[in-house]
């Protein structure tokens, strides 16, 4: 759920950028989309730049927010993958038969609990 929400925020950032670039910077829809995706993903080939003052002010805020949104999406994606691996490992471990000696060896801090 967190991954989907984070990806939705990234898509909304791209959409907002497309709209501003089309209406404020007077770029075509394809160029607006291209520049928006290149900027949000921080590729930025430098072939287009914001030319108007309003566009530059927007870009200063939008690039910061959208870059953080992309970073958070990658964080949640990695976190989901690690959580899945952790759940699979826990399920495998809990399915194993343990001897009393192995169970006692699992009590690392010797407090009687595993």
UniProtKB/TrEMBL annotation:
It is found in: Membrane. The keyword Transport applies. GO terms for biological process: stabilization of membrane potential. GO terms for molecular function: outward rectifier potassium channel activity; potassium ion leak channel activity. Gene3D superfamilies: 1.10.287.70. GO terms for cellular component: plant-type vacuole membrane; plasma membrane. Belongs to the two pore domain potassium channel (TC 1.A.1.7) family. This is Two-pore potassium channel 3-like. It comes from Trifolium medium.
């Amino acid at each position: 759920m967190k991954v989907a929400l984070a990806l939705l925020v990234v898509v909304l950032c791209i959409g907002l950028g497309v709209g501003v670039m089309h209406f404020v910077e007077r770029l075509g829809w394809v160029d607006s989309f291209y520049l928006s995706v290149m900027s949000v993903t921080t590729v930025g080939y430098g072939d287009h730049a914001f030319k108007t003052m309003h566009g530059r002010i927007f870009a200063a805020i939008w690039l910061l927010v959208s870059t953080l949104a992309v970073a958070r999406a990658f964080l949640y994606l990695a976190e989901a993958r690690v959580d899945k691996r952790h759940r699979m490992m826990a399920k495998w471990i809990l399915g194993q038969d343990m001897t009393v000696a192995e169970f006692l060896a699992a009590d690392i801090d010797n407090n009687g609990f595993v």
